[in-house]
Amino acid sequence: MSQRSDTVFVSSLGKGDSLHQQVLAAFPLCQMTEGDLIQNPLFCKLLATLSQHVDRTGLTQHLRRDLEKAERELHTQRLGWLRVESLHRVLQEIVQEHRFSKDSNADEKFFSTLERCLLLGQCVRQLDCCSDLSEHHNTVLGLSEERLMRQMPPEQEVLQMNQRLPSELLKHLKKKAVNMLSYYQPEWDSEQQKAKSLTEKNRENSTLLQRQTHAYLSELLKSMKILQCLILDLRLKAQKDLDRKKIEYFEAKCEIGLQRIRLEMLQVQLDTYTKDKIAAHKRITEKLNAELKTSEMEKQAVESKLASFEIYGKDFESLVEEYSRLRQEIATKSWALKEFAT
Fold first, then answer.
1. What DSSP string runs through 134-179?
2. Can you tell me whether residue 270 is helix, strand or coil?
3. Bridge partners for 262 per DSSP
């Protein structure tokens, strides 16, 4: 019975060549041929069933996911290590180039701080390699990370070094890239020299342009100052002439006003004092003068009487009243005479 079923399965496999091809494609690492599968139909069936649970390398989907995760983590760790290692080596190259250079203007504090930090960092990395040792095992020379960190430069110097480090690193990498390009493409040196010459010429032209611009602006400023002085001088002269003309105008206008006032006053006087009125005023004035003289004579007579009658009592009071009346009359007539005189 079993031989009969195998025969039937073999015949079905023989008719379905695509199954054989699928099995061979699912297990490329197995050294099998299509004839082997035809001769072993049950094994072919087993491989076809396994192909649904494993990949081409023979790993299950779960193991494949774990392997891919481990590979990604390994790639990340390698990339991080490579980045740190590359940066560390570039920094060491910077320190070595400075050590053998003859640049007297270099900042010794920066390079000494950088070298010291690199050395301590390398020592800390060496200690990290021994972190899997037991707690009772002594580290190299009995050192610890805390003890090494005490040897770090002052914080201010480290801060200044970190601020300058990116520019120094960029300058070194640019120089290194130029050297590599010059090695692999020697003709680039001529282009670099040409570019350097053009850059230098451009710098000189820029400096010349700045000088010419400064000189132009200086001359322009001087010209503007001269123009301002001229404008102010001309404005003052014009203002002076204008003020003089305004003064003459207002003087003439004031004189005209005064003449008009005098004319009005004369007109009022002419309208007020006609020839008949003036003759009457003269007669009145003569009469008032005569009366004034008579009153003054009477005053003198009364005063003489007052002097002689001071010893009298009530009778003297009547004389005083008379005297007061006469003085009031004299004052009234003097006022009237004065008004007519004007």
1. -TTS--GGG--HHHHHTTSPPHHHHHHHHHHHHHHHHHHHHHHHHH
2. helix
3. none
Mean residue pLDDT of the chain comes to 77
Domain spans, the chain? 2-58, 64-184, 275-341
Cα Rg for the chain, rounded, in angstroms? Answer: 66
Structure confidence by residue, pLDDT tens digits, 14-36 = 444 577 777 777 777 677 777 77
Residue 312 three-state SS: coil
Flag whether pLDDT at 76 surpasses 80.
yes
Distance from C-alpha of 45 to C-alpha of 13, rounded to nearest angstrom: 9
95 contacts 114 by C-beta, under 8 angstroms: yes
Model confidence at 6: pLDDT above 50 = no
The packing angle between helices 41-50 and 2-15, to 10°, is 60
Half-sphere exposure of 21 (CA within 13 A, CB side): 4
Reduced to 3 states, what is the DSSP secondary structure of residue 342?
coil
Amino acid identity, position 19: L
Backbone angles phi, psi at 309, to 5 degrees: -110, 30
Q: In the chain, where do the E strands start and end?
A: none
